[in-house]
Amino acid sequence: MTPNPLLPALTAQAEAAAHSRTTTCPCGAPVTLADRPDATVVRHADTVAKAHAPDLTPTDLTPRLTTAAHLPDLLLPPLTPTPVDLHGRLVTFWPYGTPVDPADPDAAPWEAAATLLARLHRAPAPAALPPMRGPAKAARAISRLRAVTAAERTAPERPAATERTTTTERPAATDRTTATERPAATEPTTATPSVLRAWDTLPAWSRAEAPQPDSTTLCHGDLHLGQLVRHPAPDGPWLLIDVDDLGVGVPAWDLARPAAWYACGLLSPEEWTRFLTAYRAAGGTAVPAEGDPWPALDVPARALTVQTAARAITKALAEGRFLDEVEQSLVDACDRMASVPPELTHGHAK
Amino acid sequence: MQCPKCHAPMHTYNRNGVQIEQCSGCRGIFLDYGELESLTRLESQWSQPAPPPPAAPQAYPAAAPQAPAWGAPHGGHHGHGGHYGHKRHKSFGHMLFSS
């Protein structure tokens, strides 16, 4: 992997910001928390610097930072109210918080996540806040999937593609797979039609082709377990982080990732029940207070299943490997979706 | 379970506390013993005041929460143990932490 030229500059920024907060910085080695095309995040002691996606403008970001600053019980507040420019990227500064431990599923804070979302959905949305970006991100994942699938099909003679089809290369490239535990091997591009068919069943608003049917409810827009930290570290209250997709929109979108994980068999009924029950107990408005929540969840959960499946295929292609068992379960759900149109799952059973 | 008519998978739904199975293919509905009576009883109580909400869901460990028709077979109310605990463990570390 080529080093990101932005990293040294961002690391220096994080250090400067950390030192402006304290005269007794322990100055351990800086840590790169994330380095993806859409975000680079560096920690220095108790300060985190984030370089946002290259296409994000101050007009997009500043009202979202302001919202976080105004809701410090729900959203981690930024250290500075406006972003700074670094090599053409917007950079923001945040206090460090302790994240959820990916190695300890039993410690996942489902109730805290649900309660924070319920309170966020009931908070008044500031004026001039742009739409929540969930549907736009789903549409982008589908565009990328179409592009990489088309490229794979029109260039079958490329060395990389040929190499991937040899029987020795695929399993070797899949480091999660052991010899005794082989998933059903699916060539990533063969899963693309299932994902696109499921996408085609979705209504226009969920594909970012029409405005969302709710333009007043404050939503996070990208809820997953990496979006929660305890602040002050290490045992302060849980708060939501990452305001890049925050905005007004359909609040069920924020519940739809756990809903999709449950629907795809990745989250147990017990954990899903804990999450949903806590959301309702905190007065969340995305689903009715009782009864079947799926009429409200169905479209967003489908969209996020499709988005996650699309990203999994794109990633597997880039890494030259098969889909793994978990990724395959998302594609299987897309297959089933195409035979059950969204409107049939609304209301009561026929 | 499989639909006795068209053999497509059947999915479990909870309707007012009654578990019913619906076929993902032909949309037919399967009722267990006593479930028709439970639904009839609910219908007869329709105009009466609603009963108090059920206690915490932990009190009913056997009842699976509602799931969409396109969802993975969770085993419905026939219990859900080890068969996906393994998948949960594999998915937790990466799938549940990324956009």
UniProtKB/TrEMBL annotation, chain A:
Region (Disordered): 150-192
Aminoglycoside phosphotransferase domain residues: 47-293
InterPro entries, A to Z: Aminoglycoside_PTrfase, Kinase-like_dom_sf
Keywords: Transferase
UniProt xrefs under Gene3D superfamilies: 3.90.1200.10
GO molecular function term, any single one: transferase activity
The species this protein was found in: Streptomyces cyaneochromogenes
Coiled coil: none
Protein name stated in the entry: Aminoglycoside phosphotransferase family protein
Superkingdom in the source lineage: Bacteria
Automatic annotation (TrEMBL), chain B:
Transcription factor zinc-finger domain residues: 2-40
InterPro entries for this protein: TF_Znf
Residue ranges of the region described as Disordered: 42-99
Composition skew (Basic residues), residue ranges: 75-92
Regions of compositional bias (Low complexity) in chain numbering: 57-72
Designated name of the protein: Zf-TFIIB domain containing protein
